[in-house]
């Protein structure tokens, strides 16, 4: 007979397999996104590299609206170009849409 402890956080993962049964966002089926602070219960896929997230931001493509973060608007960058964003940026989002 196999006994499973109850699912305290209601994420459909019982405490037997869930590494944190107090938080529904943390469970073995969670997709691991580097640096998001949500654990997938797999020590083989760390949530962040040793020392934390570090580095510089690069972007490329059409700089129509300043989305690359550097240079003259309207320039098309065909290779990765270093952004001028400060080193303490912890999250960025980018996108394009239609208005009207």
From TrEMBL:
Region of interest (Disordered), ranges: 1-20
Which superkingdom does the taxonomy of this entry point to? Answer: Bacteria
Q: What is this protein called?
A: Uncharacterized protein
């Amino acid at each position: 007979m196999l006994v499973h402890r109850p699912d305290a956080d209601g994420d459909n993962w019982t405490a037997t397999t869930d590494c944190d049964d107090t938080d529904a966002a943390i469970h073995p089926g969670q997709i691991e996104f580097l640096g998001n602070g949500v654990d997938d219960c797999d020590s083989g896929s760390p949530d962040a590299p040793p020392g934390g997230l570090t580095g510089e931001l690069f972007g490329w493509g059409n700089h129509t609206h300043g989305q690359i973060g550097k240079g003259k608007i309207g320039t098309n960058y065909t290779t990765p170009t270093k952004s001028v964003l400060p080193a303490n940026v912890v999250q960025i989002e980018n996108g394009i849409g239609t208005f009207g």
